[in-house]
Amino acid sequence: MLPEYFEFSLPTKLVYGIGIVENLGETVKPLGKRKAILVTDEILVKTGLVKKVKSGFKATPIKIAATFDQVPPNSTIDTVEKCAALARRKGCDMFIAVGGGSVIDTAKVANLLAVKGGKLQDHMGAYLLDSSETLFPAIVIPTTAGTGSEVTKVAVIADPDNDVKLPFAEDQFLPYLAILDPNMTVSMPGKLTAATGMDALTHAIEAYVDKEWSPASDALALHAITLISGNILQACAKPNDLQARGAMQVGSFLAGVAFSHSMVGMVHGIAHALGGVYHIPHGLANALVLPEVMAYNLEARIDRYADIALAMGISFPQVIGQSRSLLRSSRLDIFSKIAGLSDVDSLKELVTTSSHQARNKLSTVIGNLGFIDTWVRRQAALAAVEKIRCLNQQLAYLTKMPLNLKDAGISDNLEKIEQVATIAMEDGAMLYNPIEPERDAVIEIIKKVYDAKRPPLPVSKEDLRPLATAQPDTSVTNVFKDAKMLYEILVEFYELLKNNPEIGPKLAQSNLCVQFRYKNPSAVITIDATGDDLKIIQGEFDGEPEVVLTMNADFAHAFWHGKANLVSALTRRQVKAKGNVPKTIKLLPILKPSYALYPKFLADKGLRHLVMT
Q1: Which of 148, 320, 439, 476 has the most crowded CB, counting CB atoms within 10 A?
Q2: What are the residues facing 451 on neighbouring strands?
């Protein structure tokens, strides 16, 4: 069943890859010349991540004219105003955010203030800008995997004088470009990895169960739940596992897109209030409150919480529903196993000799047992709640993450609980909760989370995977010193392929003329199989090649090692193609043996140092 109405859009371009922040030339080229302000925090400056990002922009038309590195863990009005003032003073027309949610939210709202002027409070609210109004383009490079702020229209800024968080929402907050590089999250401490990861998981779960769900947000939310729940322990226990780090980043991104289209709920309402009054970190507050709100919402969303259990790897078979389907499709062998029957032949005889009416009656009898599946679904939903509690306990074991609000820093015995409840009940997220939150329930949940007594839960080897190695390094730079060296190596290698008895004849039969145009250094080589003889032509070609492939020479070097994928490179615009590309792609199976020949060829030429391992 579909909702009466839903929308979906994602104007932000997103790119993902290990190490991509170090080579941003082609990615940011469409933005042209810009003067950017880079927004970050002092810790990221000290880790060297900001330096790495700045290095990646050096070969681009974008000049980083100012750096604002004074963003605190919970950004404030004063922080945003100072950032916007610096951007105006330096004449910046672009924002680059490098950091977590607080940094990204600061950049969003500072961008708004830099363009519109006035006081920050004048712009608080939702969608105050006309569709014709624009902000400066923004590039976001997250260093955490939790907020999803790189693809959301919202931002939250603290007002410490009034113990509240100010909400902002504008379509124009969506950045032009979001860059996900797992290397940017490796230095994130375990406790922060846990908290931000649970923040992302909360986004996905609330997006899936709230009132404004849609088919698009559902699909994204469920896959985000699978990625995050399956990798968060790994990322905390083995912080250098780039595959786990990448999965957390992608899960956070998907969850961000999901809740941007369906919103969050009661968990966030309470977490925002705890952050405003007691300054509890947002991700940690979400982690502690999440299972209690899931339990509170359970009866209204049993099927959806059961889906969440399945997404987290908890499987509860629907025996009755499966039996009816198998009976209808005459899969009696499988039906007999599910039903616990041993005499399949007798069952077949019963069904095949019975009338259509009798078969329908048998199906109806089985259908009347559907309450069993309903009960099973409820157990799955309950298991989802318990899974989140256990996940928190395991994260506490790995990272010493607090398991109650008292250990998180609330030392006044909840003297301000009424204030927290009032702020929570006024939070916009409460409007989207599957059932209308009650003030007494909010107070009850806060009290329960305040002094919860669950202990850390040890993490077994079965809960973790061997450390995933990084992807092969295809970013070798400056292999060929000049065009002369490139021609000496690649032309000779192509002649070797031409004369290879396995490869040469197949290339000659392709009847294709392919030209390779290399950059860094500039060179041109054409392989022409349109005549009687296969020709390797160095330099410009008088004829008309059917296909022209333009690429960096270092990519060609990696390709002939079998360490660079041409199809992926075309998608990523690392290689530009003109002409009959599908016909060229068909040559790839022919060239596969060359991946072993090229390293040997280099070694035989005394160039073993150029061989990629």
Answers
A1: 148
A2: none
